[in-house]
């Protein structure tokens, strides 16, 4: 098997560009053995796999030198395998969802990845990110998700109010998190048959328009002295409570 040893190789340079959202047309990169295995086990279309000699035994791979792998990798310590995967087709069909997580302008990649992974663990049907949220296919979000994008639909760059209208038309109840006087403790909520849970921006929460649109406004009562919870922690509490 021939090895790519130059960082100037066209395939390497083109693949490297996929770390930036503006360069992604129909594929993205995942790094590491676990995400390679997740991609293989899912319905995802694998375009190409770059490996060092350590993984040269795998089928249909492109062998690269350690130096090229280090150049191509976004990790401090490359595992030696990077997979180019086709992006899913972005479409939202609210009537198909029974449990939907919506992230409204959530900007921290770690929070976004954690919440998508938690939605996967809690048995949610899909995740929607409105415009202004972190890039789902950025390296940090992908590392935090740990392959959950292969388990449930994840749609990004959605217009928030258009999405909420689609949910209303499909009789999907919208539950939004807020600390307003109109909100109720999440423990008192009788979970609707079909619902969407909205988590807002880390600093400013949900928008006024979203609050006015929601069917239920909910909060987590805190007996301690902390002013607020991390949005990913709050999302985890709510998701498992609503699916209990």
From TrEMBL:
Q: Where in this chain does the record put each RNA 2-O ribose methyltransferase substrate binding domain?
A: 29-91
In terms of Pfam families, this protein maps to:
MRM3-like_sub_bind, SpoU_methylase
Segments passing through the bilayer: none
Q: Which GO terms describe its biological process?
A: methylation; RNA processing
Q: Which UniProt keywords apply?
A: Methyltransferase, Transferase
Gene3D superfamilies per record:
3.30.1330.30, 3.40.1280.10
Any single GO CC term annotated in Swiss-Prot or TrEMBL for this entry: cytoplasm
Q: Which terms in the Gene Ontology molecular function aspect does this entry carry?
A: RNA binding; RNA methyltransferase activity
Organism domain of life: Bacteria
Assigned protein family: Belongs to the class IV-like SAM-binding methyltransferase superfamily. RNA methyltransferase TrmH family.
User: What's the protein called, per UniProt?
Assistant: rRNA methylase
Which species does this protein come from? Pseudolactococcus plantarum
| Organismal lineage | Bacteria, Bacillati, Bacillota, Bacilli, Lactobacillales
